[in-house]
Amino acid sequence: MSLLVTAFLDHAREHAPDRQIVDYVDGVCVRRSTYREQDARIRRVAGALVALGVRPGDRVATLAGNHHRHLELYLAVPLAGAVLHTVNLRLDPAEIAYVVDHAEDSVLFLDAALRPAAAPARAARPGMRVVVLDGEPEPGELAYEDLVASGDPLEGPPPRDGDDLAALCYTTGTTGAPKGVGYSHRALYLHTMAAGLADGHALSRRDRVVHLVAMFHANAWGVPLAAFMVGADQVLPGPHPRIADVATIVERERATYLGMVPTLAVDLVEHVRRTGTDLSSLRALVLGGSTPSRELIRAITEDLGVPAFQGWGMTETSPMATFSAPEPDATPEERIEQVRTQGRLLPGLRWRLVDEDGAVVPHDGVSRGELWLRGPWVASSYYRGDRPEAFTDGWLHTGDVATIDPDGRLRVVDRVKDLIKSGGEWISSLALEAALLEAPGVADVAVVAVPHERWQERPVAVVVPAGEGLDPEAVLGALAGRVPRWWCPDRVEVVDALPRTSVGKVDKRALRGALRAGEQKEVL
Amino acid sequence: MSLLVTAFLDHAREHAPDRQIVDYVDGVCVRRSTYREQDARIRRVAGALVALGVRPGDRVATLAGNHHRHLELYLAVPLAGAVLHTVNLRLDPAEIAYVVDHAEDSVLFLDAALRPAAAPARAARPGMRVVVLDGEPEPGELAYEDLVASGDPLEGPPPRDGDDLAALCYTTGTTGAPKGVGYSHRALYLHTMAAGLADGHALSRRDRVVHLVAMFHANAWGVPLAAFMVGADQVLPGPHPRIADVATIVERERATYLGMVPTLAVDLVEHVRRTGTDLSSLRALVLGGSTPSRELIRAITEDLGVPAFQGWGMTETSPMATFSAPEPDATPEERIEQVRTQGRLLPGLRWRLVDEDGAVVPHDGVSRGELWLRGPWVASSYYRGDRPEAFTDGWLHTGDVATIDPDGRLRVVDRVKDLIKSGGEWISSLALEAALLEAPGVADVAVVAVPHERWQERPVAVVVPAGEGLDPEAVLGALAGRVPRWWCPDRVEVVDALPRTSVGKVDKRALRGALRAGEQKEVL
Prior knowledge:
Pfam families (chains A, B): AMP-binding, AMP-binding_C
Domain AMP-dependent synthetase/ligase (chains A, B): 12-383
Structural class of chain A: alpha/beta
Protein name (chains A, B): Fatty acid--CoA ligase
Keywords (chains A, B): Ligase
Strand order of the largest sheet of chain A: 2-1-11-10-12-13-14-15-16
Oligomer: homodimer
Organism (chains A, B): Actinomycetospora straminea
CATH architecture of the domain at 1-17 and 33-200 in chain A: 3-Layer(aba) Sandwich
Radius of gyration of chain A: 23 Å
């Protein structure tokens, strides 16, 4: 019996027909429907896709925000036997064209507001059908609601196997072209089961989840499929929700589960302090994307009264790979430290740390190595075989440098490519950034390597000040006693903002380039 | 990447090396070891099995109680590529010989005390190697600890596939010969994931489980493998633990999870009332095997202060199929009623109710049908193809008659073969028994059909009195207003004890036979 993600649609319809899918726009509820109603719409869309000529294995793209129609496609596309390709709407139009062309998408579903971003992709694939999700279709486009209205509910889906792809997502690495990660039905099925484990995200029938994580981003952390599986309510915040909207949604919907990046969580804490919004319904605020600061974890736990957790993973791991929860007997201070680690490996996955020579290093909390992962929901190749050097015998090289404690807690130290090699020793840019962030007057910081004649590389700190008159010497002075003296950056550059990639990560490649260009200019 | 249950051994060793496996005998702790130590022993036993000539797919039988060596075999046998056949030690020796011969077991591991039970099986399979788990080997036997000492740890297990069998268990139906249920690695892997779901048994790293359910019985409800997966402590109560021993173990070990049949739970409640044993560490007492009474659920919840749940399943479902937890907002009375249902279907499984004509009946809480199940850990055939009529297109006919509420709660009404057809209408023997159990002076009861010239069948109640002087008329009088008048049994037979099968179920076939024999005698 094949493991198919569409089983979770059946489960939601049969076991939670009256649970809700709720849409918000700008902090206002605009729609409520039930799994019973959503199931009928999803089957119609699947039927319409088959009628449009979509064949098993075809790729169907979305370029859309977080709303119920996007959620419907999460299941309608795999139900039709096709592969859901969620396109990152923050890519620039040329990159969107690249991934749509690389995936050879046969249909594109898009929000009307994103037509400009899709123009080059449409030019590159003139045979691609385009369906606009909202508003009036332009010439050559189909309207989504017409598909829903005209589609015959798909009762007998095409035969599919657990190894068939159900979804596809491109990584937006800061080096090289985007690489596709294909997710088989089986991988997503098992990933969804893992999302319900009591030791992990523990998604359950009692939950009301808010999808703040972008739905184009690595299956939205896997939370939508998990909500179908367990019959949880799902709340979609619509396009560009402000932090005030998020707080309003949690308060009005009595939401229980919310995932977000630390940067947004800082804003949320600040907003709640100012407004007193009631977030007490949350049983879990899960942080992911980068390591949260101690102060953020403390503020969420103590000031908001909401249990804070950290999840870690990447596009290549579907994405949940570890989960960090405090031990039941931890002191408040230990809890913060434990949630700051990337946490424990989810059951079913394997890991190892591998040094520069390819040797496995011990899990002693000190030895560092590149983290390799393997398991039923970890990619063992990229789509179309791109970049095979990222895999060895089915093990994914994550590109993250990490330690693992003897009791199994992961601590990501740096990206392999962001480590700074100075005088034959490694400097962790992440650790240096964490120390610099605690210096007074520093709002944001990135540390990158610049070439150095004697030491090979030396660190340079690029700092965004919190206010006026930041003193670079004072910033460096604040490092004393916090990091080894030789880690101290050679200089501090003050900038208004850090360059970021389309998924909000600091673009260190751009920074390194700018710094080198700056140096050359000085030389000239 | 194949889904293999032995992945959970790797997970326990790497992520919970210091968590404990604890052995008790007669309520006294006799051994503590760690997953690190157990892993080494399990690999040695697997190596010894391969050295003994066990080949992938061979069946390896156990006839043993609940102790660490039996637990080791749960993983050592699949690690060696073989199939663990746990033999029911309560079968009579001829039945043991039947299943060992049917499975063609090549090795038998047995407790020394069970040698007499194994004698006919050994005679039937003279080539079978016999390993005694405890005490001195007799001529022709090997000693388990010699295997552990001599075995080279198996580092490179034979290649196995997720579809290969990992375990085998025979059902002890009250009709016909025992039927084998083979469990693939994949089925047990997914069943183990399901055991960790927050909406189900929710086994987690925080747990200390006690294995009171016999380890020969349907993978001991799947709890041992789940404990390996999550890194929970496991406590083994040894042979024939008395209820006082169980209470002592829970109190001393601060156990968190305990599963048992309602009959034992009644004794446990009584024991705690008398002794004041502290069971407050339990986060879950899961009842399974038959529907618990309201009073039992109330007593566990209120008098013991322990959350009560019900799990339901059968050998053919690995065995967990449903889990019954109260809704978060239920009143105390509603909680009892909700836990009395068989509960909600675990994600990944499908169900339907089918009437006598093969038509699917609605889930309206009233319509009855035979429960059919299907899913990755539900058998779709018996071992060697026995009794193919129990399956239709991959659906298992459970033999249970049930209703399903509109919100998805299962209520098992009766076994198909125990329903009583009277005047063209069905009488539920289970519902009648539940009503009779509430009559004063009734300790135990079974209702069976006897042939009737006019009504086809009529119910007869066989009652075990709680004390002296039970009045059959008073028993029937107590039914007034509780069941339809025409359900009232034609007569009440008073007996000292009910006949039971090897797994403790009332043997209704034997009862029906005895009643008919009695009638014939009266006629003669």
